[in-house]
Design goal:
With about 240 residues, the chain is α/β, with parallel strands linked by helices. It contains eight helices and ten strands. α2 links the parallel β2 and β3. It binds 2-phosphoglycolic acid (PGA).
Length: about 240
């Protein structure tokens, strides 16, 4: 795993945006795997700036998002579809028909998993996957567990994740208890991955990942098996 330690959140965001912009320049119709949450917001802001300056062209880019709460309607302002529209898609020249997020209203969980995997396959796989990391080491909603799901599936959120994510909701009771998430195989199919981390509260998960050993009890550690991962973190996440 290559490691880039940025001074702070702003520099982490810039460095990650540079990698995404280069991917788009190298392959204008690339497939980006995208993530939501606080971590990539600054990166999306940099990409919007790049697009406005005529330096980043999203016109042929295709995207697949990592996850979506269940049950949630796309127009709900807590949905990840809403987040992506608001933080990126509405501000760049992407064709929304080329953007994919799991269907948070799908009632047939296995069917939705299969449908989403087919989308990824039909796109020719993911060129560059962006990942955040949970304080507990989750990636997407692949939560620490003895067994992990390989493909897109309906995941139960851990109590810790529900508590951490409650900062976006009026109360902890409003946080959905489940989410569709790409699985480890879906993520590992990406030709390259950037793992982003910012803040002291991510230090333990980052340090565990950098130890180099592998455990499903910290899913990010499995990224040590992938040949093309760059960790971009700030000093707080790196040093604690
Ligand atoms: P965050 O979430 O970017 O909001 O910290 C990351 C994650 O839980 O994967």
């Amino acid at each position: 795993m290559k490691v880039i330690v940025a001074k702070d959140y702003a520099e982490m965001s810039l460095r990650a945006a540079e990698i995404v912009a280069k991917q788009i320049a190298d392959k204008p119709d690339c497939v980006l795997g995208l993530a939501t949450g606080s971590t990539p917001e600054g990166m999306y802001a940099e990409l919007i700036k790049g697009c406005e300056a005529g330096k980043v062209d999203f016109s042929a880019v295709r995207t697949v998002n990592l996850d979506e709460y269940y049950p949630i309607k796309p127009e709900n302002d807590q949905s990840y579809r809403y987040f992506m529209n608001e933080k990126l898609f509405d501000h760049v020249n992407i064709d929304k028909a080329n953007t994919n997020v799991p269907n948070g209203m799908a009632t047939d969980a296995a069917g939705e998993g299969a449908r989403y995997e087919k989308i990824i396959e039909d796109l020719g796989g993911i060129d560059l996957q962006v990942l955040g990391i949970g304080q507990n080491g989750h990636i997407g909603f692949n939560e620490p567990a003895e067994e992990l799901d390989p493909i897109t599936h309906l995941a139960d959120l851990t109590e810790e994740t529900i508590r951490v994510n409650s900062r976006f909701f009026e109360s902890v009771d409003d946080v959905p208890k489940q989410a569709f998430s790409m699985g480890m195989k879906s993520i590992f199919g990406a030709r390259s991955i950037i793992l982003m981390a910012s803040g002291k509260n991510k230090h333990n998960a980052v340090a565990k990942t950098l130890e180099g050993k592998i455990t499903t009890l910290c899913p990010a550690t499995l990224l040590n098996l992938h040949p093309n991962v760059v960790l971009i973190c700030d000093e707080d996440a790196y040093n604690g």
